[in-house]
Amino acid sequence: MKLRIIIMKDDEKLIDFSLPQEELRDIMTRLLGDVDQTLNEVREFTEVHKALSNAKRLLMMLEMLRRKRMRFQDFVSSLSMNPRIVSFNLKLMTRCGLVDKRNGAYQLSPKGERLLLTSLLIMEGLMRRERGRGWRRVPIE
Length: 141
Hints:
Arc Repressor Mutant, subunit A; 6 helices
């Protein structure tokens, strides 16, 4: 068994992620065998999904994706957000590894950018499917 996720737009591959069989087996063995490690990973997974499940945080992440780097005041002014909410959300996203702070400016981390794009693409695909615009089938290798 091999896990492979390919997300395409037209004929362009946006994301091509695969785990070979032996790596997938190692992950499953670790997750099912080491309870403490599994609990830590579940906590991290939960924190990341908590961060991604809030509309304000998603707007902040989309704005960082668009602008690349933003200062604290940019969030307050461009998104008309309360400074306390901006502070709380930036701390949460930084703690989860979704956002990096460098030289007083915030930007999406590589992990944050991948998770945001993947989540948005999957959501878009699901919404299109719900509207009856099915997905193109890709042969399984």
